[in-house]
Amino acid sequence: PQFSSELEKYVEENRRLPENARNFSLKLIREGLKPRSLTRDVVWGIPAPFPGAQGKTIYVWMEAVLGYISATIEYFRLKGEEEKWRDYWFDGARIVFFIGKDNIPFHTIILPALLMASGEGYELPWTVSSTEFLMFEGKKFSKSQRVGIWIDEALKMFPVDYWRYTLLSIRPEVRDTNFTWEIFLEKVNSDLNDTVGNFIHRALTFLCRHFNCQVPSPPALDSYDRKMLEEVEEAKEAFNRILGQMRIQQAVQAVADLARKANKYFNDKEPWKTVSRRRDEAAATLNVSLQTVAALSILLEPLIPGTAEAIRRSLNLSLQEALKGVSEGLKIGRPQPLFRKISREETGVKPEKGEKEVGEATPEDLEKLGLKVAKIVEVEAVPRAKKLYRIRLDLGGGMVKQTVAGLKEHYKPEELLGKLVVVVSNMKPAELMGLRSEVMLLAAVEEGKAAILTPEKPVKPGSRVY
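and the corresponding structure tokens:
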């Protein structure tokens, strides 16, 4: 309580704190902080050194947070740099904590109060990146009830970067999120394999097949080439800004979006056609593509570092070299696939056996459809198709899916963009015009006119429809 005003000022003025940390901490402070006992009547713990406290131990959250400092001191003592630890706690050091929301007060109130009480000028936490809870298939994790999957088990099933990418993409930064095997399959197969891995492998394989694995010098870049390079620079800037704000879920999305744009660029430029007739144009396409591959290796470094390193290994570049871009004449190694598609069977989750006879629908039948509200985030006309749009939809929790819908005769792209719609999220993916369609957008049709289904009031993407 002695530091209530100082703590309120610290929390109020620290705009880097996420809303859940700021609001929860300010509520506690303004309700009035109560004196808290420093000791506990338990045997396990650090013995309390205070007079009259024989047989007592220090309350764990009073000493554990100070362990951050003592661990830093010990680390540099073992390295023979005994004063180096001060660089991490004084003189403008930025101290960042990544925690669950149940540990907020220990890092926004108790630790700052202890640092203030020392009077030694410690830097207070620069930010506390506190998340909501992650659920497992709609349930709370429980070791006793075997709800969840444990790290040693997970790593035996699939590579670590598959897990890292999926979990970071659904990191519960604003609200509780839910891990499902459906999401895991989507992130690995669609994002990593079909988007990131597909673009990189195509670009590197084409380079080796037609340019002897050597980055060509483009005589000139056209407007599309320059636009793609601008997209790369914009993605880097956005990624740096977003990551600095600890919005990791959005950072993952930014990388996936860049890979999608790169795939589209490669498809639109059709180097397999131009390489024989207009080789200079193909050279420009490959040069731009390799610059994009190098950029992806940098952006993926904090997210899936093993994959990022594998990309740079194929490019024969170190991280520092990749930061400078790809030089003309660079000789790359023979590319290897970065990812592979995984099946539901590999997850160990068995689909329900048998099918019910056609008849009256039950609530369980409706549940299987996975009806959800989604927000349209991208609309693009499908080339050489009179009726089709390629539409990307945000289903909440970091999940973005694609559908191919025959709405071109009924809606302009700007009429669809940003609209909340209802989709069937559990449908089996199909291919239309070479594009993957993963969900079905629901619409009513009368006399040949389509009207998409929308919720009456604004709701969050991912909300279930019953």
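(Above: one complete record from the training split.) The longest strand covers residues 371-381.
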